[in-house]
Structures are given as structure tokens and as C-alpha cells.
User: Fold this.
Amino acid sequence: MRLSIVTPSFNQGEYVAATVESVLAQKATADVQYIVVDGLSTDGTQTVLERFRDVLDHLLIEPDDGQADALRKGFELADGEICAYLNSDDTLLPGTAAWVCDYFARHPQVDVLYSHRLFADEHGRIFKFWLLPPHSDYLMSRWDYIPQETCFWRRSVVERFGGIDPSFQFAMDYEFFARIMPHVRFRRVNRFLATFRQHSASKTSQLIDTVGQREITRVRDLYGISISRFDLQIARLLHIFIDRTDRALRRLLLHRERWRRFAP
Assistant:
């Protein structure tokens, strides 16, 4: 089973090498096609990417109309049975590609999978966890808690319902998930597959309160997703659940690290 991964790139020169290396390392244990599309970065990203040109399946460095347009270009070159995209400041965990391909092979009824989320800082240090409940179409269509960097889907989904909508700048993943969710089977798997890098220059940090909120509202309007008072209460409970499990897991890891220091 072949997995195609697209990385849209623009001005993330500080992080893009780690992203690319995390995907290329997957090739040792899985059939991975890797496509990188850079929109003429001006911060040295192009120089970093040129170092990898000979080992990438495709490297496009040319003007584009933003992240979603870069994804459109990349997926036009993709030929894998499984698809995903990884932003140029996130990373895959070791062995992810092989595990994902094996999971899809063993679970033909599953069309889309995603995992819990790991948060990394600008230095790559893990500082936060999202432990997510089992997938619910009702919940995830209203509140976009699906970690995009951990999400993989069958190519047949795109062939039936279309791919990323290039008219979106921020919520292209939420729009894609909301469009296909009524028709295909999602599964939240009980593991970590990737890391989400949170830093001040990230698109999420810069746009969530402006373009992000407008596009999230646009998706809900487009697919008739209403938010009731009950939904707001459910969202609050989900937030509390994620926050408390994060704190509990970090305490557990801290205790284990302290034990290792003193264990013989």
C-alpha cells in the first residue's frame, strides 16, 4: 500500500528541514511518495529544500495562491492509495507511515483515521497533549478537534467527494472533513502519529481569531451545521476533558522521569 504525503511550504525555513526529514525517514519501512510545494519562500526555505531535491519524489518551487492551492498542486501529482498532508512546521513520528498503511490494510471499513495530538514548541520539545475521545461525527462536525497533521484518508474518498477546496485559506481541513463526514467512516486511533508545532509565526497563531473564525462559520453555513446551547455545553465538557487528561499525563510523565533519575 502506497502513501502519498504533500507538504505545502512558505517561509518556514527554521522548521522545514525537520518536517522533510521526518517524512523521508518513513521510507525505510513504508512505500511513501513525498511531494513538497513551496510558494517562492523568501526566508531561506528554498535553499533548505534544494538540499533534498534528489530524494524527494517531487519538489515544486513556484508561485501559488496560498496553502490550499499548494495542496491542490501537490495532490494532482499524488498516486498513493492513502493520502495526507503535513504542514512545513509539523513532523511525523517514527514508524507512522508503516503503521498507517498496515492499519488501512487490516481495516477496509475505515476511510479516514486520525490520532491524539502532541504539541511541540519552537525547539521541538513536547509540552502538551490532546487525548481525544473516540470519533463522533456529531461532535467533530461542529468542533474541529481533528488534528490535521495526524489525519490520513483513502484516495477513493477524494475520487468520490473531491479534495481540498482551494478557496479556503485557513479552514480547508475542516471544510474537507465536514464535507465527507456524512458519507465515510472516520476512526480516532489510540496512539500518537505526529507532532503539531505551536509557535508565534504559525498560521494557526496568526489567523485563528480573524480568517479562521470567518471560515469556520462559512463551513457551518455551507453544510447546515447549527450550534445549539447543548452543543456549547458539550464543547465545554470536551475542553475540560482534554485539559484534565493533558495535566494528568504530564504529571505521570514527570513522575516517571523523576523515578528514572533515582532508579538503580
About this structure: The chain has a mean pLDDT of 93. The chain has nine helices and nine strands.
